[in-house]
Predict the structure.
Amino acid sequence: MRYALVTGATSGLGKEIAIRLSESGWCVFACGRNEKALGEIKKTTYCHPLKMDVVDQESINEALEEVLKITDHLDAIINFSGIQKMSSLIEGDINIIKQSLDVNLLGMARVNKTFFPLIKKCNGRIINCSSECGWMTPQPFNGSYTLSKYAVEAYNDSLRRELMFLDIPVIKIQPGSFKTAMHGKTLDSFDRLINSTKMYREVLEKMKGMMLIELKMANEPEALIEAVMKAVNDPHPRQKYRVKNSPLLEVIEVMHPMTVDRLYKKFLESDKASKLISKINL
């Protein structure tokens, strides 16, 4: 029997991954904060639901105690806890940045550090969810999320180069846009941003249209699930798996930063943005 711990397993991609692993014969510790969702997981899968908050070390320690009642080792830690809140780095609440780092980066670091002895016991592997935002040119008003994912990239690569001396693989997943409940939360945070701004309302209205187009083109979860399954099962996994990253953003990535700045400014300040968005059936 192989054992995996999955964070963010009460909804979205984390839940889909936990279910697929369970169906494939893994014993899965599905971790999350939502007690109702954990109850549903217990009813419908072979997963062991664990209430765990990645920003609370005591909660993580309690989850470790529960895991140790069942196994003394883990073959994989799969970190999929995450939040995304759109905000202005100047107008927005500084706590949005703190929360993004606390969940997306420090939560991952806490879990990996706490459960590492179980990974070391059987030379398991650690899989960290980054994002296309972790390696692509930052977009305006997505700074708190982007900087947290840039930090995840640095954390992941540093950890990989430490643990390679112990023959423990550390793998990062860089997903593009997928159809999950996070989209609704992201839109809600964007609406709050529009309603609260005193400097950027016109630009944000146009940018929201662009974001809706991007979300409409979001991918089904299957491709990402398959990538994670490869990462956990392959005897020689890749260092990173980029899955369905945005073709448009990849084009922007090859441009000079000054050119990208000019494109964003010209497009979002022009009437062309509104006209283009109005022609697309959202």
Notes: Residues 231 and 237 are 5 Å apart (CA to CA). The chain has a mean pLDDT of 91.
